[in-house]
Amino acid sequence: MLRIAGVIVLGLLCFSAPVRADDIPRAELEAGLTHLPLSPYVGYRTDPDGRADATTLFQLAAQGGFQRLPKGDATFGFRDEQAFWFHSRLFNESNTEQRWLLVLQYPLLDNIDVYLRYPDGRVDHLASGDMLPFTSRAIRFRQPNFWVDLPQRTEVELLVRASSKSSMQAPLALYTFSAFAEMERDAQLGIGLYDGILFALFFYNLVLWISLRDSSHFWYMCHISGFGLVLFCLNGLAFEYLWPNQPKLANLAIPLSMCFSQMAMHQFARVFLELKERWPLGDWISRGFIYCYAIAAVASLWVDYRVAVQPLTYSVFPGVLIVLYQAFHAIRNGYRPARLFLVAWAMLLLGTAMYASVSAGLVSKVFVTEYGIQVGSAMEMILLSFALAYRYANLRTENERVVREANEQLERNVSRRTAELSSALEQLADANARLRESNRRDVLTGVFNRRHFREVFEHLLHQAAETRQPMGVLLIDLDHFKKVNDTFGHLAGDECLRVLSQRLQTEVAADNAVVARFGGEEFVVVLPSATAARVQEIAERLRRRIGSEPVRYGGKEIVITASIGTFSIPLGFSFNPDDALHQADDALYVAKNNGRNRVHAANKS
């Protein structure tokens, strides 16, 4: 009866097997080889009811019953089949290393059975997976692994059975021990650095939350905690370090941490974007997501793992879209902090979506998609300017201290209070005056910044129109500035900008001119009451002065030149700032196209 049942199973599997496109090559271990990905040498077939055995599948492999991996990728996403079988032929041609480590590079497979058939008919069976204790693995590592013996000049058949309620991903690779140690070292270093970033981010927000009592920092900490636990589980580290002998808890932790992370993410978006006040409908949508995730978290305690994880994975996509749209909506309504939120969270959410796409089998498993979450969340940390929040916390604490001490002093002595209050007001006025002046100046060069220049320029244009006085505008661009940075370094480039600004201010000091840094290596000079001839004269003088002597920095001499575009506003004409600057910018463009280190006047229009 058993023999008849085996024949029936074999016949059913043969009937359901797809037609083989071509022969699958065997994997040959040549001399000096230390690492070999097996995807190009692996065939696969599905086992819908999960009842096939190794003997049957070895026979099917001999009959060509396996097909190539789709696009050479062993990522299949969530599938209904009970099991997948993978087959490969391993031939140690001349490699002196005979003991190899077989690594299945996805940590969330439930059961993995490895069969090795040798020429003498011997079949070795090895088992692992996250439904077995962590100690069943050959080496203590987050991904399932097995020691395999591959004698020289011997072909060994490899047969792997994988089953999982999670996403089906089974990329196989062979390593020598030294190559594996090197790979593990680099991987652990990267994971350690990333986890360090998460810890720093958590404690930094903890300090801010304690200091500011701003609930957005609290919910961000909750999201970091849940998010970190999700990655800890998905990378197999939670199974390795937190519950190595509790496979069921390892599986349960994944949907619970996903729910907690997503709930905290939507709650953080609600608080940060002030959805309740600014967009009630968006607030209700986020609350709906939170309620759904709370129900899913409770249900995951009883329902099957796949029933819980698969919808949670797919729910990432609408979650990503709604949070991004909420940020766009807030920006359209003039909420400026939403811009930073959008940029920072777009990186994190994009990475999360890429990982979910891999799990769903929508995209191939490559570095960017596999580690999209880590890359995206690291970018988020870089983009978010925590320094500003921390500075705000310090300023508020200092203000509270000053007010408290002032109140105590007021209660002790009215006369002293008056004197101290007057002194404090004078200091505050002085500080405000210095702050106003600092806000007008470019930090690097000391000339006016673009924002203040805009205000001054508008005033000068209005004044010139009322008094019927001419005016000149010069746009000055340092030639080949990128080459200076590339050759001498950015600090040398900064020194060139400082020297340029000093020469500009010195040369036009007697002309009552306004000098400002327009952006990058561009400067703008406004010459009130200057005729067209005078504007050209000053521009030529500036050009000669800029290139008159090199900039000395770090023992080197850097020759600099500049291109200048001029625009003269004659009597009786009225221009707005953008039009005048546009004319000068067009002239500057012509000067640079005509060979640089020259002055070009704009045509009056």
TrEMBL record:
The chain crosses the membrane at residues 191-211, 218-243, 249-272, 284-303, 309-328, 340-363, 375-393. It catalyses: 2 GTP = 3',3'-c-di-GMP + 2 diphosphate. GO terms for molecular function: diguanylate cyclase activity. It comes from the Bacteria. Residues 1-21 form the signal peptide. Its EC number is 2.7.7.65. GO terms for biological process: cell adhesion involved in single-species biofilm formation; negative regulation of bacterial-type flagellum-dependent cell motility. Keywords: Coiled coil, Membrane, Signal, Transmembrane, Transmembrane helix. It is an enzyme of class 2 (transferase). Residues 469-604 form the GGDEF domain. InterPro entries: 7TMR_DISM_rcpt_extracell_dom1 (IPR011623), 7TMR_DISM_rcpt_extracell_dom2 (IPR011622), Diguanylate_Cyclase (IPR050469), GGDEF_dom (IPR000160), Nucleotide_cyclase (IPR029787), Rev_trsase/Diguanyl_cyclase (IPR043128). Pfam families: 7TMR-DISM_7TM, 7TMR-DISMED2, GGDEF. Gene3D superfamilies: 2.60.40.2380, 3.30.70.270. Its cofactor is Mg(2+). Residues 392-441 form a coiled coil. GO terms for cellular component: plasma membrane. NCBIfam families: GGDEF (TIGR00254). This is diguanylate cyclase. It comes from Arenimonas oryziterrae DSM 21050 = YC6267.
